[in-house]
Amino acid sequence: FFLKYIKSEDLRLTHTEFRKQAGKLDRSVVAYLGRAEREYPPGSELVRLSESQSLMEGGEVAAVLEQIRRLPVGKQDCLGIFRDIFYHWACVMRSKFDLLVLPHHTQVVCLLAFRYFLEARLTGTDPHALIAQVGTGEGKSMIIAALVIYVVVA
């Protein structure tokens, strides 16, 4: 399932879906998601995949892993430590299961929002806790694991 649909993920649609939730969210969370959209816009995806690309072939997989490590040219890397986390996660999954696993756009945006929350200087009106509601199949375990690594390392 994952390999079948990974090439059709759409970062623009991901941001649109997050914006649809804005009316139900605290203004600070809306700001975090807005910042994620500005810093991680369509065109800045972690990996760009083509329809013809084989995600099972060794050379193609190695090229994708190299893309994950590559820093953006001419702009700041908004992913920071998450880029390394995603790379090492992909390498471990490949070595354990011989499968290329990449983060979904929803996972990346969610992790960026959590990072902005953790970096924010709290005022009296800001939330003091942040909870993510993640649907089935959106990778809760990966989000939690990546966030734990971020908190420990950062």
Commentary on this structure:
With 154 residues, the chain is an all-alpha fold. It has helices spanning 2-5, 11-20, 27-39, 58-69, 81-97, 105-119, 140-153. The model has no long low-confidence stretch (mean pLDDT 87). This is SecA family profile domain-containing protein. It comes from Alexandrium catenella (Red tide dinoflagellate).
Q: Output the structural class.
A: mainly alpha
Q: Whole-number radius of gyration?
A: 16 Å
Helix and strand pattern:
HHHHHHH
Query: How many separate structural domains?
Result: 1
Give a quick account of the main beta sheet: strands, pairing sense, barrel closure.
none
Q: What share of the residues does DSSP label as strand, in percent?
A: under 5%
Secondary structure: helix percent: 55-70%
Q: Averaging pLDDT over every residue, what do you get?
A: 87
How many helix segments? 7
E-strand count: 0
Low-confidence stretches: none
Q: What does the overall shape look like? A: globular
InterPro entries: P-loop_NTPase
Protein name: SecA family profile domain-containing protein
Task: Summarize it.
By secondary structure, the protein is mainly α. It is built from seven helices and no strands.
What's the helix and strand layout?
Elements lengths: L1 H4 L5 H10 L6 H13 L18 H12 L11 H17 L7 H15 L20 H14 L1
Helix pairs in contact: 3-6, 5-7, 6-7
Protein name: SecA family profile domain-containing protein
InterPro entries: P-loop_NTPase
Organism: Alexandrium catenella
